[in-house]
């Protein structure tokens, strides 16, 4: 009962007492095999929830030494693979999972290449054309126990591949899971399979319309199978639906997913939902003071549960907020209460590095260090896989365009102007596919790009209309911080024209909005423009 209501510490105490009692009989594995297996398995699960990975490994060793067949090991092996993932032991987790899958009859090539992934995707896409949504929802239930475990292990593997930036592995694993489901039937992992396929379509392949379709199907499947609601909420709301719905609409479902995950004992995905919640909170322009309070609280909880994979995701975001709030020594360096930049980057996995580079890129642009912004932008470009499909992909492309425009202005080189135009074309494509969160971003990019050749007063009407549209749409959409930035850039443009009245008006409004957002350091910087 304690385990079911998420009282993991009391549950661990109960299981510990049970283990002491059963171990009084040195032959308990022979005399009471099923009881021993169930007790040890539940103890492993509880140790994982509590982040007690040393105890987990000791219990695992005892189970492996005494089980009579592979089937009895499978449940705890799934938990062990997940625990390795949480501890950032990604390659070790993948090696173990692939070994078990091979024993279950699901072998994979030792070295994936793009053609494997491409062929798998084309087969899956063609197969799906034969099914309507209702037909997919009506597929029979999977009854093969080994296939159920294989499906779960492949889900763990594609998570590892995501964090290691291995798009080919992600694609192949996702498509293999889908094909197994179509052959053997539905199970508790089905909603997650569809959510990951939707993520792949939106992020890796740029097929947003189909991605939203399969993401919506994943949510419908939760009505039949809700065991993994937290992870499905994580994927669908963090990586899929924001391409069609306002960013702010993703915040509450992710918060709910976090609560559901904690209640169900899915601690790992509970905290990853929290990560998604915090990213949408920050990048939606909601008050930094509220964000900082939440980030501080959740980071302490992640430390307590030893959820390192979630913790490393939010530390750069938290420290970035502190920098904007003027609570750090240097606004361009992510060192302070939340983290120490150099220590964080030591042996960091790709997703962790990307979060640092992305935050420093934004800070460098906000505070006018274009050289640092370019350096961080180029580092981000090398790690694009870690953010494809995520809302921060939109943020990265937006700031990337602004930075290249500013570099083109400084260096007067067509090379940077071309790079800026490439970013604008990407955002324009998203807007044409009805990505509502990108409309104001496109207006501001177009305004800034036009200033590269339109500093004459005769060109000003169209440029001013673009700035006004960016400010208006950002304000109506709730992106307070982007409205502040658009006002700031409009003010700087008017100042370049020698129009001090309008320059002062826009800069004053930007100052007001930055203060309202909570970015005191940025607001103070405007006083020196």
Structural account:
The chain has about 525 residues and is mainly α. It is about 75% helix and about 0% strand. The protein has 27 helices and no strands. It has helices at about 10-25, 30, 35-50, 55-65, 70-85, 90-105, 115-130, 135, 145-165, 165-185, 190-205, 210-220, 230-240, 250-265, 265-285, 290-305, 310-325, 340-345, 350-365, 370-380, 390-410, 415-430, 440-450, 460-475, 480-495, 500-515, 520-525. The longest helix is centred in the C-terminal third of the chain and has 21 residues, at about 390-410. It is globular. The model is unreliable at about 1-5 (pLDDT under 50).
Task: Give a summary of the structure in a few sentences.
The protein is mostly helical. It is built from 27 helices and no strands.
Instruction: Give a count of the beta strands, DSSP E runs of length 2 or more.
Output: 0
The portion of residues forming beta strands comes to under 5%
The number of helices is: 27
The end-to-end distance, rounded to whole angstroms, is 62 Å
* Pattern of helices and strands: HHHHHHHHHHHHHHHHHHHHHHHHHHH
Question: Mind telling me the C-alpha Rg?
Answer: 25 Å
Largest sheet: none
Helix content: over 70%
Q: Which structural class is indicated by helix and strand composition?
A: mainly alpha
- Are there runs of 5+ residues with pLDDT below 50, and where? 1-6
Shape: globular
Mean pLDDT: 88
Characteristics:
single chain; 529 residues; 27 helices; 74% helix; globular
